[in-house]
Write a structure and sequence with these properties.
- The chain has five helices and eight strands, in the order ββααβββαβαββα.
- α1 packs across α2.
- α3 links the parallel β5 and β6.
- The relative contact order is 0.14.
- The radius of gyration is 16 Å and the shape is globular.
- An eight-stranded mixed sheet has the order 1-2-3-4-5-6-8-7, with helices on both faces.
- The longest helix has 14 residues.
- It is α+β, with helices and mostly antiparallel strands.
């Protein structure tokens, strides 16, 4: 996936758990990534976690690039088998998603919005995707606002083993409407 977003060129490629582990480690242990819950992770922990994801039939990870340089992480999962098993009734075409924008000393206005838009475009590029599911921490108000800006509608709070989460959904039509595209 390649896109021009007004903040520069964003691309997405499959994550290489070993090659990309160092950069991921610096991101997930950064104070701004507290909701990622890997603050104390060692490099080997990050390698192990992303090797586990790479081997999982229903979970994938991708590295997002900005002008060819690592800038964000995207994960997709099938909520019938990962993250949300037993916590809601999945529908055909549901795809779960996580994303993390790399910490930076030189923020670009609108960058995080461009990243989530790119992630959503990537997910909806697959015609089988009918709805994107997210479950951010209830306390992560910044991501709630961002999710809402791209079309997510919060359904309810749920209790996961590691957090209280806000279960939210975004259909292709809601995403397009949020972008001002006629549906």
């Amino acid at each position: 996936m390649t896109g021009s977003t007004g903040v520069g060129r964003l691309t997405v490629r499959p994550l290489d758990p070993l090659k990309d582990a160092e950069v991921l480690h610096s991101w997930v242990t950064h104070p701004k990534a507290a909701y990622w819950m890997m603050q104390d992770a060692k490099l080997q922990d990050v390698e192990r976690e992303y090797m586990r994801i790479a081997a999982h039939e229903h979970h994938d990870a991708y590295l997002g690039l900005h002008e060819g340089r690592p800038a964000f992480l995207m994960e997709t999962y099938d909520p019938r088998y990962v993250e949300l098993v037993g916590l809601y009734e999945p529908q055909p075409g549901d795809v779960g998603m996580h994303f993390l924008v790399a910490p930076t000393d030189r923020p670009i206005h609108g960058f995080t919005r461009a990243v989530i838009t790119t992630v959503m475009e990537e997910l909806f590029a697959d015609p089988r995707t009918r709805r994107v599911v997210v479950e951010p921490d209830v306390g992560n108000k910044a991501v709630h606002a961002l999710n809402e800006a791209v079309g997510f509608v919060a359904e309810r709070e749920i209790d996961k083993p590691e957090k209280r989460a806000l279960l939210s959904f975004c259909t292709r039509e809601q995403f397009l409407a949020a972008r001002g595209v006629a549906v």
